[in-house]
Amino acid sequence: MPTRTLLAIWLAFLIHGAYYCRLIPIWEGFDEWGHYAFIEHLRLHPWTLPRTTDGVTQEIRKSVQSAPIRHEAQDPMLVFEAQQPPLYYWILSIPNRIWIGADISTRVYRLRIFSVFLASLSIPFAYLAALELFHSRRMALSVCILITVMPALMIDIARIGNESLAIALASWLILLLLRRDKGGTDFSLCFALGLGLLTKAYFLAFIPILILRRRIYSLLAALAIGGWWYGRNFRLTGTWTGEIMDVAATKLGWQAKLVAVAKVHWLAVLDSAVWTHIWTGAWSFFTLRSWMYRVFELVFAVAAIMIVYGLAKRPIGRFKVKLGQLCLLEALFAAGIGYQSLSIYLNKNIYFAPGWYFYALVVAEALLLATGLLILVGRRRVFWAMSFLVVLFAALDIYSAIFILAPHYKR
User: Fold this and answer.
1) How far, in Å, CA of 115 to CA of 119, rounded?
2) How many angstroms separate the first and last alpha carbons of the chain?
3) Residue 78 bridge partners (DSSP)
4) For every residue of the chain, which 3-state class applies, written as one string?
5) What does the pLDDT average to over 116-137?
6) What does the pLDDT read at residue 72?
7) 180 CB contacts (<8 Å, ≥6 apart)?
8) Against a cut of 0.85, is the pTM above it?
9) Distance between CA atoms of 257 and 340, rounded to whole angstroms?
10) pLDDT of res. 184
């Protein structure tokens, strides 16, 4: 019975994602045409990686400039997402070659569906991770349902973009980190982290956890798989990430970064991170009514307080160690996003943090929310609390899709 239920949830995730793939117009996903330009470069030049100074194809240029909603479509249009590690683009270049006979809109839609499928792998990983933490099938299923109804997650993955693969790999890593440490080299752990490092630079946040757990051989094996990308970045740009904002900020010198730390309005950065994580309407940055954000912020705050309370009061045991590990991962990830916010400030003089990146840790987030509710209401009432949270996200999903996105996109 749990297996059938899990498969049903997995299917619901795929259907939910496919709906958003159809709802969101072409190139309205965050940086979507830049990501597709990377894939197209690999089709045309299969043995070379693109650079951020390379131009896009004429087909992409015409499609973007004729799209109903245009974003950063001025010439020269460059493959700016060449700053990203290549694994996702290598994978999607295969179906892109197969479907090259179709028109560009059809190819984009099919690659969106493929990306949703990649992200959907987080569901079985979430189930197994929740079993490791709670030892309850009902709790594990409720965590999967919670992930499935998150609308901002669907907006994030219903596009061509490497977030979908990153979410799946990060979910796998979280599962592996929650399992008992057996010592030695964990080949699954080093393989997952190595692939993650070849997908998004924010997988660097997992490295301190492996060091703390003394998984040095696993870390070295992971760096053997993905470390070459970061060495290449440093050789070409002088930064480990190769990210455009980081490169531009690094040219100003480390002194400028230190001065900027005191100048940045970090509360404003935090606020932008929260609202862009709870819900933001794709690249047009539609927003909800302010009180709707406050409702979710209140839920998150209560869960956070309960987790701190649990960590402080509970005796040290496996549950507390695992919970602390999830919290540390969120903190390390937040530090990485904070560094990116510093680079954004130095380049654009705005206080902003892209909160949608936190969906890479959606499994950790769902586990922490479930833990906070468990500590708050106890085991007997936790399923009612989880049901309330699921209904809350589902209501947000229905409202935002029907009353915000659909009316705008039908114009």
Assistant:
1) 6
2) 45
3) 55
4) CHHHHHHHHHHHHHHHHHHHHHHCCCCCCCCHHHHHHHHHHHHHCCCCCCCCCCECCHHHHHHHHCCCCCCCCCCCCECHHHHCCCHHHHHHHHHHHHCCCCCHHHHHHHHHHHHHHHHHCHHHHHHHHHHHHHCCHHHHHHHHHHHHCCHHHHHHHCCCCCHHHHHHHHHHHHHHHHCCCCCCCCHHHHHHHHHHHCCCHHHHHHHHHHHHCCCHHHHHHHHHHHHHHHHHHHHHHCCCCCCHHHHHHHCCCHHHHHHHHHHCCHHHHHHHHHHHHHCCEHHHCECCCHHHHHHHHHHHHHHHHHHHHHHHHCCCCHHHHHHHHHHHHHHHHHHHHHHHHHHHHHHHCCCCCCHHHHHHHHHHHHHHHHHHHHHHHCCCCHHHHHHHHHHHHHHHHHHHHHHHHHHHHCC
5) 97
6) 62
7) 318
8) yes
9) 11
10) 46
Cβ(114)–Cβ(100) below 8 Å: no
Q: Which domain holds residue 275?
A: 2-29+122-409
Structural domain contains residue 320: yes
**Could you tell me which residues come within 8 angstroms of residue 190 by beta carbon, excluding any fewer than 6 positions away?**
217, 218, 219, 220, 221, 222, 225
Distance CA 286, CA 288 (A): 7
Tokens describing residue 297: 């912020």
**Cα distances (Å, whole numbers) of residue 73 to 36, 98, 105:** 14, 27, 17
Helix crossing, 122-134 with 137-148: angle to 10°? Answer: 140
Q: Rounded CA gap, 12 and 310, in Å?
A: 33
In total, the chain counts a number of residues equal to 411
Give a yes or no: residue 267 inside a domain. yes
- How many domains, in total, are found in the chain? 1
111 HSE (CA, 13 A, CB side): 34
Write out pLDDT tens, residues 72-101.
666 789 999 999 999 999 999 999 999 999
Q: Say how many CA atoms lie within 13 Å of 125 toward its Cβ.
A: 24
70 domain residue, yes or no? no
Q: What average pLDDT does range 12-30 have in this prediction?
A: 96
Give the C-alpha separation, 77 to 67, whole Å. Answer: 15
- Whether 95 maps to a domain, the answer reads no
